[in-house]
Amino acid sequence: MWDRQVSIWPGKKVRRVDCCDPWEVANYLKFDVQEGDLSFSDLPYGMRLGGFLNRSARLIAIADQLKPRTKRFTLAHEIGHILLHPGMHHHREMPIHGLGEPREPVEPEELQANHFAGCLLVPTSLLKRAFRSMFKVEYLTMTDDVAYALLGEDYMSLMNSPPYSLAFHRCVGVVERFHGRQFQSLVDLFQVHPTTMAIRLRQCGLVRR
């Protein structure tokens, strides 16, 4: 999309982060995105879908009651199915807040669509550029000094978190100040949930225990 920005957005000034917008991607793929009530009679009482895909109608539907960042991830997830799973013509999805939320799926197709969504919303090259601009290092390793810069007097709660925990990664994703520098947090810059950002930071090797 970035290479074709002149034809996609004629006369507009475009940022690379605009290519991460799932609504723009769906439009580029010529899929209509509609928002509405996705309650169905065959679902348990009170349960609603987060989204569904109808490939033949070139339609993606997103539940209108979802929060904006959940809508973004759910839409990006459905786009993942479109591009990765050509044999999937109809698909119904429960609300997905982000990577690992509310749970990690077990089906390979769902894992693949989740990974695609994470990479679409938080591309590696843009994340590394933003990270280095904010923290002025290639990557962060958890030390007393780094933990204190992130949490202040409560830094020991981070130091004592389990080795497999994403607590350190989440802190890096949501922090707006580090060693005296003020900036927009990574989660707000990319408009994703903290766990999605934490997983992308880990996948890209930018935050290490």
For this entry, give a set of tags.
single chain; 209 residues; alpha/beta; 4-stranded mixed sheet; two-stranded parallel sheet; 12% strand; elongated
Textual characterization of the structure:
- This protein has helices at about 5-10, 20-30, 70-85, 110-120, 125-135, 145-150, 155-160, 165-175, 185-190, 195-205, and strands at about 30-35, 50-55, 60-65, 90-95, 140, 175-180, 180, 205-209.
- It has about 210 residues and is an alpha/beta fold.
- Helix content is about 45%, strand content about 10%.
- The protein has 10 helices and 8 strands.
- The mean pLDDT is about 85.
- It has a 4-stranded mixed sheet with strand order 1-3-2-4.
- Helix 2 runs parallel beside helix 3 (about 70-85), helix 3 crosses helix 4 (about 110-120) and helix 8 (about 165-175) packs across helix 10.
Short recap of the structure:
With 209 residues, the chain is of the alpha/beta class. It has helices at 5-8, 22-28, 68-84, 108-121, 124-135, 144-151, 155-159, 167-174, 186-190, 194-203, and strands at 32-36, 51-54, 59-63, 90-93, 140-141, 177-178, 181-182, 207-208.
